[in-house]
Amino acid sequence: MSKVNLYFIIDSSGSMANKKSDVEGGFKSFIDELKGDGNDYSISVTLFNTTVWEAFRSKSLDEAQLVYNPMGGTALLKAIQDTLNRAPRFPTVQHTCNECGSAKEGEPIKNIVVIMTDGEENSSGPFYSKASVKRLIEDRQGLGTWTFVFLGADVNAFDEATSIGIPMANTVQYSGHHHHDMYRSAAYAVSATASSGLPASTNMAGDFDLGAGVSSAQVRPSQNPPVEESQTATVS
Asked: What confidence tier does 98 reach under pLDDT thresholds 50, 70, 90?
């Protein structure tokens, strides 16, 4: 069993208004899919539109409930930067539970950041830039215990993701008509990364179950050298 800090950054801008029920239902499916996979998740959710706010922090899967009321613009960069500034850079397990077979005290905790948006940045303001966000993301990825995945609906997800340091192989582009299915598919990929013996994944998109109703998703292979099969997280 792995200890996992899961950070979800969710677009709540006005363009998502007609997707309210799809997102709420999709998030519930995401949580339900993770239950029972044997990992210990602590989940935090950041929502953003013209402003950015933390919906909740460090909740168990049973406690995680999303209240979603989209409106306004898209402060994507501020949402990412604020989330990372709040998150411990290199957290470790504080207590060992021998009876439940959890990770041992002092072991690094896996960190997975899922970013979901249907639009481009337009509201973060002058103090936030793609360059500053990219530096933060690359710093965390360099620690070896952080995985970032970018999910873009009806936008050029690959250009947006690579511009802030997220690999193409950790990026999925999909139709905005399939938010619910994408959340469920994201759960498979998160579970695969969490259950893997590796501390992070550099090919998380490869673990998306595109057969889970996400027929419109487009996964573009990385332009970097291919990741060997032994380095790719798979569902255990």
From this structure: low
**Residue 204's pLDDT band (boundaries 50, 70, 90)?**
confident
The amino acid present at 145, given as its one-letter code, is: T
In this structure, the dihedral spanned by the alpha carbons of residues 193, 65, 180 and 38, taken in order and rounded to 10 degrees, is: 30
**Considering only CA atoms, which of 202, 207, 205 is closest in space to residue 226?**
202
- Looking at every residue in the chain, the average pLDDT score rounds to 86
Residues 6+ apart with CB under 8 A from 18: none
* Residue 18: strand pairing partners: none
Q: Let me know the angle formed at the C-alpha of 116 by 112 and 120, rounded to the nearest 5 degrees.
A: 130
Element (H, E) at 162: helix 157-163
As given in the structure block, the two tokens for residue 208 are 């998306």
Candidates 3.40.50.410, 1.10.10.10, 3.50.50.60, 3.10.580.10; CATH matching 3-231: 3.40.50.410
Length of the chain: 236
SS3 call for 172 = strand
The pLDDT-based confidence of 222 (bands split at 50, 70, 90) is very low
Euclidean distance between CA atoms 169 and 58, whole angstroms: 27
